[in-house]
Task: inverse folding
C-alpha cells in the first residue's frame, strides 16, 4: 500500500444557477492574457448541450483518455508511444480554435467617437487573433440556457441512445448547468500523452501541472485529455491548464472558482488513496464498473491502520486530520452521492458531481405531479427514463441504477427534513429504503444545506517550512506568478487588437459636461498620463 | 588559378567559423537564459488543413536531405571508392534519392511558407525571426534542389564531392580548401552561404526544437510524479528582454 493525498472537489449541481461568476473570476486571475483569450480553465456549460470545445465528450472523434487494448492492458486511446513520436509534426486529434470559438472584441471606438446625433452607431466584431473583421459563429457558451436548442442540443454526445425520445418529448425539456475545471485525475492521460515529460502530478496533493520551462509545445496533452482541459497558448506556444489555484491551496485557501461561487455549491477537501491500486482500477474491463472501482482506491482515514500507513508514507498529521474532516470524502465516498464525470474515460477524475434532482422534478412537474411531494418524486425517479439515463451517460457510463440511488438519497434528505420541519416523526423507513441511517441523513443534510465556509473548504496548508526560508527573501521582491507570459501582476491584460488602437495614449471621450475625459477602460497604462487630468487652467470644479 | 582574395577568405573561412561559434555559444545562451522560449511554436490550433500535409512532408523531406548530406558531404569520395562503389552508381543513387527528397521538401516548404504568409491567423503569431528562418530555408532548399535535379538527374552532373565537400570537411580539420570552393558553381556557393547563416540564426529561432526530440518517451513511465520542491520564481523584468539566467540563484 502506498498512501497518497489528493485535493479534490465536489460540486452540487442542484445549486448551480449558471451565473458564470466562477468562469469570470477564474479568467481574471489566470487567463486574462494574450494567447489565452479563448481559454476558460473553469467553464460552465448547459446540459444538454454540445459543451466546450464542441462535442469534446465524443472520444470516437477526439480520441482522448485511455482504452483497454486487446489484451486488456491500459493504453492511450490515441495510440501507442511510437505512433506518437511519428506523429509529432501533425497531431491528428487536436481541436481547432473554431471548436472553442475564435476570440473577438468589438470596435468600440466607432461608438465612442461617433459624432453626436449619429443614429445607432454600431461596433462591429474584430478577431483578437488577427485584428481583422470577423463574423462571430461560435463561442464557449453559444448554447447557454439551451439557446438554439433544437439545432445544437441534439449534438450532445450524452444524448446518444436517447436522441429520438428527447426530440419527441421536447415539451418535457429539462436542463441544468455543468461547471467544469480540470479533474486533476488520479490517472491523468494528459500527463501520459506529454512526450517531453513536462506535465506531472504533484506527489503532495495530486495537483496536475505543466512545467512551462520544459514544455516544448508538442501539443499532445491537449488532445490526450478527454475533458479538453489542457489549452494551447498560441502566443507562447505552451500548454496551460487549470492549476487548482495551487498558490491558494498551499496556503489553505479555496480555489478562486470555489471562493467566488454564488451558489456556494463547491466543496474542497482531501482524499487518501492507495497509489498502487490506481492502475488496476483504471483497467476494470466493464466501463459501468469503473465508478465502483474508482471508489475502491480510497482509504478510510478513520481506520487506524490507514492512518499509520499514511504517516509512514510521509503524510503529515494535520493532513491526516484534514482527511478525516474532508467534505469530499464524506460526499463522494461515505455517502456516495457525488459521482465522477465520465468514468469511462478511465482517468479517475477527482472533481465529483452531486447529480441534480431538478431535471427529474421538472419532468415530474410537466407530467402533472407536485414536485414538492416526495412520494411523487420517488415515483418519478423510478419511472422516468430520459433525465435519469441522460445523467447516467454523464456520470456512470450509462448505469442508471447508480444515478437512481443517488437521486433517491437526495430526495430522502428532502422528505425527512420536510417531516422534521412540519413536526412529524420522519421514522426510519425512508432512510432505510435508500440504505442510510437517520444519522447519515442528518449528516448529509448538514453538508448539503448548511455547511459553512470552514466546513465546505477543509484544506491543510502545505508543509514548506524549509522552502519558505529559502525563498522568502526572493519572494518579497516580486510575485511568484510574474513569469514571462504568466498570469502575475506583470500582465497588461489584452492589448488592443492589432492595428486598431494606438498604444500608449488613454482614449478620450467627451463627457456630458462637454469636457474631454480619459477612458481608463482599455488603456494599456503606458504613454502620457498627463492626459488623465483636466486642463489646469481655471477649470477646477 | 590566381590566388585567393580577402573576400574569398571572408565567405569561405571567416563566415563559417563565425557561424559555428554563434551556433554553439547561442545554444548555450538560449538554454540557460531562455528555456521558456525553447519551443516549436505550433500553429496547428489556428490552421490544420494545410499543416497536415506541409509539416510532415517538410520534416520527413528535411530528414532525408540531412541524411543525404551526411553521405555526400561528410563521407569522402575515397571512402565510397574503397568500398568498391563506382562513381556512376553513386551519382545515380544520389541523384534519384536526392531528387525524391528534394520534391518532398519543396512541396512541404511551399505549403508551410505560403501558409505562413497567406493565412492571417498564422501570420498573426509569426515573429520576425520566423520569417528570417523561413526565407533562409527557402533559399537553401531552392539552391539545393536546382543542382540536384537540373545538373545531376537531367544534366551532365557536377561532382560536388571534389570541391564543396572537401572544403566543408577542411573547415573541421583547420585547413579549408578555399580555392576548391571558389571554383564551384554559384548555386553551390549561395547554398553553402545561406546554410551558414542559418546555423547562426538557429539558436535564436524556433529551430532549437529539433534538439528536443523526446526519444525517452518510449521508455519512461506514463504518469510522471514530481515533488513540489522549491521552484525559484523568475527574475523580475525578464519579460521582453531575455538575457537573465533562468531557474534559480545564479
Ligand atoms: C527532430 C525532430 C523534429 C521534430 C519532432 C519537429 C517537430 C515540429 C513541430 C511539432 C512543429 C510545429 C508544427 C505545428 O505548427 O504544429 C515544427 C515546426 C517546424 N519545424 Fe520541426 N521538428 C523537428 C526537426 C526539424 C528540423 C531538423 C527542421 C529544419 C531543418 C525543422 C524546421 C521546422 C520549421 C521551419 C517549422 C515551422 C513550420 C511552420 O512554418 O509552421 N524541424 N517542427
Ligand atoms: S482532466 Fe485534468 S488531469 Fe485529467 S486528463 Fe484532463 S488535464 Fe489531465
Ligand atoms: S459561480 Fe457557482 S453558481 Fe455560478 S455558474 Fe459557477 S458554479 Fe454555478
Result:
Amino acid at each position: 500500500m502506498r498512501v497518497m493525498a489528493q485535493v479534490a472537489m465536489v460540486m452540487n449541481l442542484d445549486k448551480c444557477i449558471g451565473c458564470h461568476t466562477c468562469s469570470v473570476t477564474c479568467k481574471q486571475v489566470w487567463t486574462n492574457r494574450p494567447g489565452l483569450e479563448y481559454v476558460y480553465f473553469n467553464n460552465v456549460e448547459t446540459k444538454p448541450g454540445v459543451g466546450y470545445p464542441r462535442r469534446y465528450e465524443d472520444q470516437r472523434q477526439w480520441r482522448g483518455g485511455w482504452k483497454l487494448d486487446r489484451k486488456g492492458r491500459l493504453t492511450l486511446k490515441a495510440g501507442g508511444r511510437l505512433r506518437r513520436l511519428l506523429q509529432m509534426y501533425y497531431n491528428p486529434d487536436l481541436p481547432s480554435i473554431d471548436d472553442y470559438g475564435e476570440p473577438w472584441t468589438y470596435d468600440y471606438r466607432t461608438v465612442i467617437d461617433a459624432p453626436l446625433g449619429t443614429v445607432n452607431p454600431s461596433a462591429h466584431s474584430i478577431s483578437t487573433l488577427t485584428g481583422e473583421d470577423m463574423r462571430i459563429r461560435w463561442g464557449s457558451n453559444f448554447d447557454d440556457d439551451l439557446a438554439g436548442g433544437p439545432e445544437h442540443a441534439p449534438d450532445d454526445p450524452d444524448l446518444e441512445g436517447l436522441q429520438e425520445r428527447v426530440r419527441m418529448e421536447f415539451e418535457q425539456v429539462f436542463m441544468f448547468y455543468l461547471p467544469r475545471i480540470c479533474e486533476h485525475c488520479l490517472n491523468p492521460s494528459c500527463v501520459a500523452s506529454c512526450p517531453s515529460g513536462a506535465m506531472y502530478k504533484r506527489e503532495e496533493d495530486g495537483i496536475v501541472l505543466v512545467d512551462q520551462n520544459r514544455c516544448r509545445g508538442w501539443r499532445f496533452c491537449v488532445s490526450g485529455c478527454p475533458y479538453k482541459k489542457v489549452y494551447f497558448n498560441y502566443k507562447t506556444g505552451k500548454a496551460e491548464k487549470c492549476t487548482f489555484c495551487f498558490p491558494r491551496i498551499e496556503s489553505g485557501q479555496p480555489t478562486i472558482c470555489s471562493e467566488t461561487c454564488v451558489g456556494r455549491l463547491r466543496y474542497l477537501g482531501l482524499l487518501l488513496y492507495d497509489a498502487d491500486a490506481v492502475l488496476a482500477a483504471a483497467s476494470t474491463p466493464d466501463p459501468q464498473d469503473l465508478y465502483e472501482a474508482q471508489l475502491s482506491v480510497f482509504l478510510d482515514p478513520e481506520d487506524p491502520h490507514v492512518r499509520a500507513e499514511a504517516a509512514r508514507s510521509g503524510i503529515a498529521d494535520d493532513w491526516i486530520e484534514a482527511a478525516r474532516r474532508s467534505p469530499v470524502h464524506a460526499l463522494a465516498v461515505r455517502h456516495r452521492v457525488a459521482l465522477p464525470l465520465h468514468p469511462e474515460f478511465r482517468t479517475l477524475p477527482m472533481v465529483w458531481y452531486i447529480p441534480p434532482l431538478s431535471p427529474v422534478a421538472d419532468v415530474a412537474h410537466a407530467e402533472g405531479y407536485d414536485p414538492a411531494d416526495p412520494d411523487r418524486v420517488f415515483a418519478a425517479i423510478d419511472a422516468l427514463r430520459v433525465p435519469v439515463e441522460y445523467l447516467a451517460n454523464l456520470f456512470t457510463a450509462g448505469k442508471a441504477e447508480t444515478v437512481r440511488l443517488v437521486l433517491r438519497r437526495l430526495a430522502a434528505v428532502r422528505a425527512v427534513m420536510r417531516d422534521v420541519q412540519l413536526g412529524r416523526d420522519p421514522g426510519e423507513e425512508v432512510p432505510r429504503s435508500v440504505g442510510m441511517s437517520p444519522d447519515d441523513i442528518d449528516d448529509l443534510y448538514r453538508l448539503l444545506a448548511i455547511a459553512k465556509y470552514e466546513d465546505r473548504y477543509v484544506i491543510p496548508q502545505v508543509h514548506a517550512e524549509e522552502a519558505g526560508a529559502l525563498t522568502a527573501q526572493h519572494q518579497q521582491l516580486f510575485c511568484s506568478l510574474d513569469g514571462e507570459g504568466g498570469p502575475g501582476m506583470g500582465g497588461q491584460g489584452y492589448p488592443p487588437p492589432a492595428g486598431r488602437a494606438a498604444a500608449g495614449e488613454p482614449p478620450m471621450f467627451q463627457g456630458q459636461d462637454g469636457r474631454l475625459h480619459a477612458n481608463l477602460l482599455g488603456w494599456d497604462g503606458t504613454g502620457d498620463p498627463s492626459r488623465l487630468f483636466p486642463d489646469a487652467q481655471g477649470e477646477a470644479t | 588559378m590566381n590566388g585567393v582574395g580577402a573576400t574569398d577568405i571572408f565567405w569561405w573561412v571567416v563566415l563559417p567559423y563565425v557561424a559555428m561559434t554563434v551556433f554553439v555559444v547561442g545554444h548555450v545562451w538560449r538554454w540557460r537564459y531562455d528555456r521558456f522560449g525553447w519551443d516549436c511554436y505550433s500553429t496547428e490550433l489556428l490552421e490544420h488543413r494545410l499543416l497536415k500535409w506541409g509539416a510532415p512532408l517538410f520534416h520527413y523531406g528535411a530528414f532525408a536531405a540531412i541524411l543525404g548530406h551526411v553521405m555526400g558531404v561528410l563521407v569522402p569520395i575515397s571512402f565510397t571508392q574503397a568500398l568498391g562503389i563506382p562513381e556512376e552508381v553513386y551519382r545515380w543513387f544520389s541523384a534519384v534519392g536526392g531528387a525524391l527528397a528534394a520534391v518532398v521538401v519543396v512541396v512541404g516548404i511551399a505549403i508551410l511558407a505560403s501558409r505562413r504568409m497567406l493565412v492571417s491567423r498564422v501570420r498573426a503569431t509569426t515573429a520576425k525571426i520566423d520569417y528570417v528562418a523561413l526565407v533562409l530555408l527557402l533559399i537553401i532548399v531552392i539552391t539545393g534542389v536546382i543542382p540536384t535535379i537540373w545538373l545531376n538527374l537531367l544534366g551532365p552532373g557536377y561532382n560536388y564531392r571534389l570541391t564543396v565537400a572537401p572544403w566543408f570537411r577542411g573547415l573541421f580539420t583547420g585547413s579549408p580548401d578555399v580555392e576548391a570552393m571558389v571554383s564551384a558553381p554559384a548555386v553551390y556557393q549561395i547554398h553553402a552561404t545561406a546554410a551558414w547563416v542559418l546555423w547562426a540564426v538557429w539558436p535564436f529561432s524556433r529551430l532549437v526544437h529539433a534538439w528536443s526530440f523526446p526519444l525517452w518517451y518510449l521508455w519512461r513511465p506514463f504518469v510522471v510524479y514530481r515533488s513540489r520542491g522549491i521552484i525559484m520564481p523568475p527574475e523580475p523584468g525578464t519579460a521582453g528582454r531575455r538575457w537573465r539566467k533562468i531557474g534559480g540563484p545564479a
